[in-house]
Amino acid sequence: MKKIIIVGAGASGVFLALNLKNKDNEIILLEKNDTPLKKLSMTGNGRCNYYNDDQNIKHYHSESLNELNYLLKEKDIKRCLELFNELGIYPRIINGYYYPYSNNAKTIRNTLIEELNKKNIKLKLNYEVNNIKKKDNKFIINNDLTSDYLVISTGSKCMVNDYIMYDILKEMKIDIIKPLPGLTKLVVDNKYLNKLNGIRTLCKASIIVNDEVIKEEEGELQLTNYGLSGIVIFNLSRYASINLEKNNNVKVKINFLHTIQNIEEIFVKNNNIKSALNRILDEKLVNVLLKDLKNLNYNELTKEEKNELFKILTEYEFIVTGIKDFNNCQVSVGGVSLNEVDLKSLESLKISNLYFTGEILDVDGDCGGYNLTFAWLSALIVSRSIRRKNDKSK
Ligand SMILES: Cc1cc2nc3c(=O)[nH]c(=O)nc-3n(C[C@H](O)[C@H](O)[C@H](O)COP(=O)(O)OP(=O)(O)OC[C@H]3O[C@@H](n4cnc5c(N)ncnc54)[C@H](O)[C@@H]3O)c2cc1C
């Protein structure tokens, strides 16, 4: 009977164990926490956004884009959703975003744990893997356990203290693309942040690197006393992370009136600029936007002054000076390079029978269920591959 060790009882490790377990194998899940699927309970603000109907590949990112495109097969992604349906997890779908019907992440967590128990999958908790060796075709873990197959499903250092798997893998000569915080908040330089703190507004946000627009997002922006937050910012933050690391100039430009076709019309109806804008935007925000405007009578502005006003309203710039760190992010950008793995199986090209799933790989997704979907998808690919190998060796 083949022995398979999965390191990490998080989303991808547990999903892998459930899909892989049969009478011909023994699976042991090793988890450093005192409980499995700890992070899953926190996902989606405690609601767990586990899938999205919009599976356009533009929502997934990696340094190795061709390899990523190869991995994201529509049929496989849909199969992940089917597997959730087969587990009896009934979705509550809001604008294409999938949550458990209970609207509570614990429903998914409890279901997966119940299934682990049903299948008699061994789970060793409070067990941190800090040493991996390979000898005579067997993996030796912490000089304690041995296995025929080893799967690294340890996620990333995002919201984890003392993450050691990157160092272990580097010692095994696996190429790691420097992990950086993703889906995080941005620290900006703006003298009015205290006045803006607490404002939420819909907008179009663009990230600008060395004066070039890299990506645009529409949605809710949250202004805080250190900078920018909200889903639009989370989705842009990977570009800030990567480019600040390269010492590039990073700015975020906000269009506060992105759905208004003709801005001039606002002031035709109401000539007092402040009064007109107060009927459209948050009053505290209007106060800051108009801080340097001397004349509030629209009709009296010169053409240049009008253009300046439009620019403030539609191209307000924040200089990004930093990002919130790994303790404040939702995913990591970077990880095990996709060039390190056979894309059909996610098996290491350097060490046979060593596999990777989930966030440890250099793949990150937008907000909207894409990171969990990649956790399920990568687990599905690995489960199929190990099962095939086992069948062949019978
Ligand atoms: C606050 C928050 C909200 C999120 N919301 C969403 C959402 O709604 N939708 C979405 O798609 N994604 C969301 N994500 C991202 C998503 O949770 C992760 O991308 C996903 O859990 C990654 O799965 P994984 O299996 O790779 O890693 P994880 O789920 O992180 O599991 C890795 C496991 O490995 C264990 N481990 C690590 N090192 C070792 C070691 N050396 N030895 C033993 N065990 C080890 C860890 O303790 C952990 O249990 C969110 C993330 C956060 C932080």
Present the secondary structure layout.
Blueprint: E1 2-7, H1 11-20, E2 25-30, H2 38-46, E3 51-52, E4 60-61, H3 65-71, H4 74-86, E5 91-94, E6 97-100, H5 105-118, E7 122-124, E8 132-135, E9 138-141, E10 145-147, E11 149-152, H6 165-171, E12 176-182, E13 186-189, H7 193-196, E14 200-209, E15 212-223, E16 227-229, H8 231-245, E17 250-255, H9 264-269, H10 273-278, H11 283-289, H12 303-314, E18 316-323, E19 331-336, E20 341-342, E21 347-348, E22 354-356, E23 364-365, H13 370-393
The chain binds flavin-adenine dinucleotide (FAD).
Strand content: 25-35%
The whole-angstrom Rg is 24 Å
Report the sheet with the most strands, covering strand number, pairing sense and barrel closure: 6 strands, antiparallel, barrel
Strand order of the largest sheet: 13-16-15-14-17-18
Molecular structure report:
This protein folds into two domains: 2-181 and 331-393, FAD/NAD(P)-binding domain (3-Layer(bba) Sandwich), CATH 3.50.50; 186-323, no CATH class. The protein is built from 13 helices and 23 strands. The chain has helices at residues 11-20, 38-46, 65-71, 74-86, 105-118, 165-171, 193-196, 231-245, 264-269, 273-278, 283-289, 303-314, 370-393, and strands at residues 2-7, 25-30, 51-52, 60-61, 91-94, 97-100, 122-124, 132-135, 138-141, 145-147, 149-152, 176-182, 186-189, 200-209, 212-223, 227-229, 250-255, 316-323, 331-336, 341-342, 347-348, 354-356, 364-365. Helix 1 packs parallel to helix 5 (105-118). The protein is elongated, with a radius of gyration of 24 Å. The model has no long low-confidence stretch (mean pLDDT 96). The site of flavin-adenine dinucleotide (FAD) has 36 residues, from helix 1, helix 2 and helix 13.
